[in-house]
Amino acid sequence: MKITNFILAGLFVLFALVQINDVDPWLWVAFYLVVAVFCFFGALRRYYHIPLLIALFGTGFWLGMLLPDFISWIREGMPTIVGSMKAESPYIELVREFLGLLIALAALAFQYYQLRRAKSQ
Questions:
Q1: Which ranges of 1-121 does DSSP label H, i.e. alpha helix?
Q2: Which of 50, 65, 49 is nearest to 102 (CA)?
Q3: What is the rounded distance in angstroms from the CA atom of residue 60 to the CA atom of residue 78?
């Protein structure tokens, strides 16, 4: 799990770097770096229960706020979101954000799973 966590931490640092040229970089860079920090500490087997729960629920709430836009995108037939890096349609940016949050939620859930496993041992 140590290697997996280091890889995840590195990926989320890369995700943060890619967000620097975004419209709202401070939000996304900070968010992805927080996830990277949780993964880094997970590699060291240091878990912070309350901050991790706050991050999990906050990410879940944020994801829920974007869910209607994601559903609308699906209802429209899932038009491409990878054609260009510039978001010509509003749903492109929202769907990309939704998917980024979903990946981050999976990484945070993995950290929580490891925390629960470490506590039970």
A1: 2-18, 25-43, 49-75, 90-120
A2: 65
A3: 22
What is the C-alpha to C-alpha distance for residues 28 and 34, in angstroms, rounded to an integer?
Answer: 10
Q: Which of 68, 94, 69, 91 is nearest to 79 (CA)?
A: 91
Residue given tokens 């997970």 in the structure block: 42
From the list 94, 59, 52, 27, the residue with the least C-alpha distance to 15 is 27
Contacts of 38 (CB under 8 A, 6+ apart): 48, 51, 52, 55, 107, 108, 111
For the stretch 64-86, pLDDT in tens is: 999 999 998 899 888 888 766 55
Structure pTM? Answer: 0.89
DSSP 24: S
